[in-house]
# Entry
Amino acid sequence: MQIDAVDQRIIALLVADARASYADIGSRVSLSAPAVKRRVDRLRAAGVIRGFTAVVDPAAVGWTTEAFVELFCAGRTTPAQIGVAVRRHPEVVGAYTVSGEADALVHLRAADISHLEEALERLRAESFVTSTRSTIVLSRLAESPGVGPST
# Structure
């Protein structure tokens, strides 16, 4: 699917505020509301836009402790096996295969250090995990909700 500059601006505006009206987006990209809706429908049908969601502030719900955990796995553990396992843990924010020594990097969020420790122990108990190396986040310096500039 071809994505032009207008599509990119629409995507960036939706990433910044998924509740923005088609009329508001249209005024910012010089299109009518129906034209924006057609483009959004086309982007959704093509799988470019996979859905709309609420972004919740973790601190507002009490999950203020976070860490990045390098997973070291046994033998021929596949990314699919890692993916299935980490989805069982509600503290997992994201998981990624990575280059370097570790097999995967897991982003965890928890209520406090005790909760984080419990989550780490459950993650370490997965049958394929041979060891982990954790880094606790002290402060967030930058965060972006999605792709591209939000013009």
